[in-house]
Amino acid sequence: MLSTPNTSQDAWLETLSNVQIATDPATTSDMPRNRDVELWFEDGNLVLVAGDTEFKVYRGPLIAHSDVFKDMLSLPQPGEDRQPGHLARDFCPVIPLYDSPDDLRYVLRVFVPGSSLRAGHFEPSFDEISACIRIGHKYQIEDLVKRNTEYLQKFYPADFDAYVAARRHRPKRFKPIHAIGVVNLARLTGTQSLLPAALMECCTLGPEIVQGFKRADGTAEVLSPEDLGRCFIGRARMAQASARIAHQMFRQTVARGCRHPACCIRVLQRLLNELGDARIELVSNLDWCIPWAGYVDEKDEERELCGKCYKMLEEERPRHLQREVWQILPTMMGVSVEQWGEKGKDDA
């Protein structure tokens, strides 16, 4: 489980205090290690050791983007000037890091020559996004954290219209259970705007909400007890919101410009009366953002509704009712987000 995050300064001090720089990989540990197949460059000038894996990379990009690595490598380097004729450019420090090799590999790929911080078409796995944010936060690689957080904000936005659009284009490699990880990343980075939509998705999970999931290195990703409690309360509030939307959908107010008010009012009343016979998920579904066109088509097969009233029930009225719920979503999930629901406020 992700523990309560340290401040950036605390994390920086903790990282530096654990640094042990050597000039020979064999001197840092007796543990058998393997050179990473992908990220071992013979002309590299920095060896990073994570678990049983060694990475030989270039220090320049890391120093340029990370104050922590910059400060690590500014520490006195043992053996750097002990041999006559030693050149600084030949010195290759070895730094043991207390990170998962898989996590570190995701981050180091960003700094491979010819790459940039998220360039071109990009459809990452959740593991990659999570690693980049967690490792980026630990080593103060601010641009890496920012860009990956912004990627999450596309799918867990503060704006309702953006959320509706994102539901149709979720990343193929993201699963509902990963919402637990999104909540934890939001807590780690202080990105409050991610929390309402991520917690809402957690509320739709089954028993797996308690166990969470495991990262590639076996670390358990679970909700904190406080956020788990928010989800238990949130589930009830989401069901209430669905029930309210269901009953407000067919109130006897016809669309502006309705061609047959008397007929359409009669159909609206019938649609309301038959809700009790409808599929239960329409009335008390935890997902209160579901479309209603299917129910209307099923119950109005003869299409007695005029075109304007049908369009109202298909798009306008459900979106209006759902938007009202969206505006109070932070309260439903037990969190506070400034300027929630405003376009362009996903950095709140």
Topology:
Layout: H1 8-17, E1 34-40, E2 46-50, E3 53-57, H2 59-65, H3 67-72, E4 94-97, H4 101-110, H5 126-138, H6 142-155, H7 160-167, H8 179-189, H9 195-203, H10 208-211, E5 213-214, E6 220-221, H11 225-249, H12 261-273, H13 280-284, H14 293-299, H15 307-327, H16 329-332
Parallel strand pairs: 1-3, 2-4
Antiparallel strand pairs: 2-3, 5-6
Helix pairs in contact: 4-5, 5-6, 5-8, 8-9, 9-11, 11-15
Structure, explained:
The chain is of the alpha/beta class and 348 residues long. It has helices at residues 8-17, 59-65, 67-72, 101-110, 126-138, 142-155, 160-167, 179-189, 195-203, 208-211, 225-249, 261-273, 280-284, 293-299, 307-327, 329-332, and strands at 34-40, 46-50, 53-57, 94-97, 213-214, 220-221. The strands form 2 sheets. A 4-stranded mixed sheet has the order 1-3-2-4, with helices on one face. Helix 5 (126-138) runs parallel beside helix 8. Mean pLDDT is 85; it is low at 1-7 and 84-89.
